[in-house]
Design brief:
heterodimer, A: 336 residues, mainly alpha, B: eight-stranded mixed β-sheet, 12 helices, globular
Chain lengths: 336, 329
C-alpha cells in the first residue's frame, strides 16, 4: 500500500509543475498588473510605477520570477497576498472550510439523491420513472450553473422568500469560528437558531453545486446497475431464494458501486470548479469567491497559491478514491 | 406422486422481433431421488426449462403451463415470497459458468453462509461450522482458510465446487445442474460429475442434469429427455435409449459420439442448425435436418407417440434404433 501511494504521489509532481506554470503565465497574460489595477483611472506616474514594480519583484525576467516562486513553494512558502499582505496559505486555510462545507453538502446531496434514483431507474428500466430520471439528469447536466443558480434565487429567495439570497449566516448571529464548518460551529455553540440559519443558507448553493454531480451519479449508477443486474451472479443470488431488496441492494449494488465511486471522485474536480461560480453567485465566503477576487485584483501570489492548493486537494481526493476502490473491489486490492 | 410434475410447459420471450417460444409444451416429471438427464443442442430450450422451474426467468419470459407442481405444491399460483422459501432450499441450482456465477465482491464463505442464514436462520459458530463442513463435502482442501477467499482467487473447478456447496447447503430435494461441467477442463469435468453423482446418492436427492454431452448422460442419468427446438423429441430410460434410440435426432446425436464412430473416416455430424425465431418449419421441427423426412413430416407436426418404454415425437420412429447403413444423416 505504501509503495502504491508513493508511486501515485510521484506521478503528481509533473501535474503540479504544469498547474503552477499555467496559472503563472495565464494571469500575467491578462492586461494590467496588480499596481495598474489598483490605481485604476487615476493613473500613476511612470517613475512610481517602476519603483513599485521593482519592490514587488515584477520587473525581473518571467523565468526568474517563476523559478523563485517554485523554489519558495517547495519550501512551503506560498508568499504574501499583494493586497492584504497576509500569508496566502493562511488566507486559503481560513476560507477553505467554507468551500469544503459547501462541496461536501453538494456531494452528499448528489449521492443521496443520485444513487437511489439511478438504482430505481435501472430496476424499473423503461418505465416512466426511468425516463423521468434520465431526462432530468440530462437537463441538469446541461444546465449552466450560474443561470440555474440565478433561477433558483429568483424563484425561492426572491419570489417565495423561503431561503436567503446570499451569504453563509444571517447578520444577527455571530459564531466564533472553530472548525470553520458553520453547521458544526453553530451546533457546538449551542445556538440552534444560528444552525437553522446556516442550514437555510446552504440549501440553494448545495442544490446548484450538486446538480451536475447528481446528474452524473444518477446516470452512472443506472448504467452500472443495468450491467451488473445482467450478470450471472445476480441469477445465482436469486437462485438462493434471496429477496429482491437483498439481491439489488447488496449483490448488485456492491458491484455497481465500483465505477460509481470512481465517478464521484472525478466529480470532486468539477465540484471545486463549480464552487467558484456558485460561491460568486451566492456571495459564499469561500476560496472560489476569493480566487475570483484575486483575479480581478491581479493578486498573483494569492491566485497561484489558491489554484495550486485546490489542485492539491483534488489530487488528494482522487488518491483517496483509488484506495477506496481497492477496498470495494477485492480483485484489485493493492496490498497482498 | 412425482417430486416435480410439469405438464405442457411453455416459455415465451417477447423481443423486438416478435414473440419467441423457447420452450414449447414440454412435460417433465422427476421422482424423488431420480436422476434425469436433459440433452439437446444449444438453443433447444434446456436451460430455459430449468430457469422456469427455478422461477428465475426475467420479466420478459412468460411461463405458461397446465401444471407445475413441486412436492405437491403448485408453483404457478404460489406468491413470490412463498416461492423464494423453496428456491435455494428445496430446489437448488448449479450453473454453467463457475467463474461468473459467484459474486466477485464477497468471500466464498459469505456466499455459502448467506444461504444458510436466510433459509435456516443459522448464525455464529454453528453457521461457520456448517459452511466448513459443506466445503469439506465438496472436496475443497483446507476449508477453514478457503472461507475468506474471494472467487477470483480460486480456480474454475474450485469455484464450481463452491457453487455445489451453496446448492446443497440446505439439503435440497431437487438439484438442477445446468451444464455444470461445460466450462471446465476435461479432467476437472470428470471430478465435478463424480462429485455430483456421489452427493446425489449420499443424500438421495433428485437431480436434473442438463447437458449436451450424451456421454455424461450415459454415465449418470436413469432417464433421459432429449429436447429439440423447445420440444421433447424423445424421453426414455437411459439404457434402452442408448441401445435403441427411436427418434432420428436421438439416433444422430448418439452416432455423433466419437466412441461410436470407431473405424469411420469421418465423425458423423448433423447438418444444419436448430431452427430459430424466424425459420421454424411448418411440419416437424426436425424435418429440415432429417434424412427420413417425407411430405407428411414437412406438412404436419408430429405429437409425442408412445414407443417402447417411453415416447418419441416422430411419425416414423427408427425401427431398429440405427440410422440406415450406419451413416450420418
Amino acid at each position: 500500500m505504501l509503495r502504491f501511494i508513493l508511486t501515485r504521489v510521484s506521478l503528481v509532481i509533473p501535474t503540479f509543475l504544469g498547474i503552477t506554470f499555467l496559472t503563472f503565465i495565464l494571469i500575467r497574460l491578462v492586461p494590467g498588473d496588480p499596481i495598474e489595477v489598483r490605481t485604476g483611472e487615476r493613473g500613476i506616474a511612470p517613475e512610481r510605477l517602476a519603483e513599485l514594480r521593482h519592490e514587488m519583484g515584477l520587473d525581473r525576467p518571467l523565468w526568474h520570477q517563476f523559478l523563485d516562486y517554485v523554489g519558495n513553494v517547495l519550501h512551503g512558502d506560498f508568499g504574501l497576498s499583494l493586497i492584504t499582505h497576509n500569508s496566502v496559505l493562511s488566507e486559503f486555510l481560513t476560507l477553505f472550510p467554507a468551500t469544503l462545507e459547501l462541496a461536501l453538502c453538494a456531494m452528499l446531496f448528489a449521492t443521496l439523491v443520485g444513487l437511489p434514483a439511478g438504482i430505481l431507474a435501472a430496476v424499473k428500466r423503461g418505465s416512466l420513472f426511468d425516463h423521468g430520471v434520465m431526462g432530468a439528469s440530462l437537463t441538469g447536466y446541461s444546465m449552466p450553473i450560474f443561470w440555474w443558480g440565478l433561477l433558483l434565487i429568483l424563484f425561492f429567495s426572491v419570489g417565495l422568500g423561503w431561503t436567503p439570497v446570499s451569504g453563509r449566516l444571517d447578520l444577527v448571529y455571530y459564531v466564533e469560528p472553530d472548525t470553520g464548518f458553520m453547521l458544526i460551529d453553530t451546533l457546538k455553540a449551542g445556538d440552534y437558531d444560528a444552525f437553522r440559519s446556516a442550514l437555510g443558507h446552504l440549501v440553494l448553493p448545495t442544490i446548484v453545486l450538486g446538480t451536475v454531480p447528481l446528474a452524473v451519479v444518477a446516470r452512472m449508477t443506472r448504467s452500472a446497475m443495468l450491467e451488473v443486474l445482467g450478470e450471472d451472479y445476480i441469477r445465482t443470488a436469486r437462485a438462493k431464494g434471496l429477496a429482491d431488496g437483498r439481491v439489488i441492494g447488496m449483490h448488485a449494488l456492491r458491484n455497481a458501486l465500483i465505477p460509481v465511486v470512481t465517478v464521484i471522485g472525478l466529480q470532486v474536480g468539477t465540484l471545486l470548479g463549480g464552487a467558484i461560480l456558485t460561491e460568486t453567485i451566492f456571495s459564499w465566503p469561500g476560496v472560489g469567491k476569493w480566487l475570483i477576487e484575486s483575479i480581478n485584483r491581479r493578486d498573483y501570489p494569492a491566485l497561484q497559491g489558491g489554484v495550486l492548493l485546490i489542485a492539491t486537494s483534488v489530487i488528494l481526493v482522487n488518491l483517496l478514491v483509488d484506495v477506496l476502490y481497492g477496498v470495494l473491489n477485492p480483485r484489485i486490492r493493492h496490498a497482498r | 406422486m412425482p417430486l416435480l410434475d410439469i405438464k405442457n410447459l411453455s416459455v415465451e420471450f417477447t423481443t423486438r422481433a416478435g414473440t419467441f417460444r423457447a420452450v414449447d409444451g414440454i412435460d417433465l416429471t422427476v421422482d424423488e431421488g431420480e436422476v434425469v438427464g436433459i440433452v439437446g443442442e444449444s438453443g433447444s430450450g434446456k436451460s430455459v426449462t430449468s430457469l422456469a422451474v427455478m422461477g428465475l426467468l426475467g420479466s420478459n419470459g412468460r411461463v405458461v403451463a397446465d401444471r407445475m407442481m413441486f412436492a405437491g405444491r403448485d408453483l404457478l399460483t404460489m406468491p413470490a415470497a412463498q416461492r423464494r422459501k423453496i428456491t435455494g432450499k428445496d430446489v437448488a441450482m448449479v450453473f454453467q459458468e463457475p467463474m461468473t456465477s459467484l459474486n466477485p465482491c464477497f468471500t466464498v464463505g459469505f456466499q455459502i453462509m448467506e444461504t444458510l442464514r436466510v433459509h435456516e436462520g443459522l448464525s455464529g459458530k454453528a453457521l461457520r461450522n456448517r459452511a466448513i463442513a459443506l466445503l469439506e463435502q465438496v472436496g475443497i482442501p483446507a476449508p477453514e482458510t478457503r472461507l475468506s477467499a474471494f472467487p477470483h482467487q480460486l480456480s474454475g473447478g474450485m469455484n464450481q465446487r463452491v457453487m455445489i456447496a451453496i446448492a446443497i447447503a440446505c439439503n435440497p430435494r431437487l438439484l438442477v445442474a445446468d451444464e455444470p461441467t461445460t466450462a471446465l477442463d476435461v479432467t476437472i469435468q470428470k471430478q465435478i460429475l463424480d462429485l455430483l453423482v456421489q452427493l446425489q446418492r449420499e443424500r438421495g436427492m433428485a437431480l436434473i442434469l442438463i447437458t449436451h454431452d450424451m456421454g455424461v448422460v450415459a454415465e449418470t442419468a436413469q432417464r433421459v429427455v432429449v429436447m429439440y427446438a423447445g420440444q421433447v423429441a424423445e424421453t426414455r430410460p437411459v439404457h434402452s435409449l442408448f441401445e435403441r434410440p427411436r427418434h432420428p435426432y436421438t439416433g444422430a446425436l448418439l452416432d455423433a459420439l466419437p466412441e461410436r464412430a470407431l473405424g469411420k473416416r469421418r465423425l458423423p455430424t448433423i447438418p444444419g442448425m436448430v431452427p430459430g425465431i424466424a425459420d421454424r418449419p411448418a411440419g416437424c421441427l426436425f424435418s429440415p435436418r432429417c434424412r427420413f423426412a417425407d411430405v407428411r413430416c414437412r406438412a404436419e407436426r408430429p405429437a409425442l407417440f408412445d414407443v417402447d418404454d417411453g415416447r418419441a415425437r416422430c411419425f416414423y420412429p427408427l425401427p431398429d434404433g440405427h440410422l440406415a447403413a450406419g451413416e450420418a444423416l
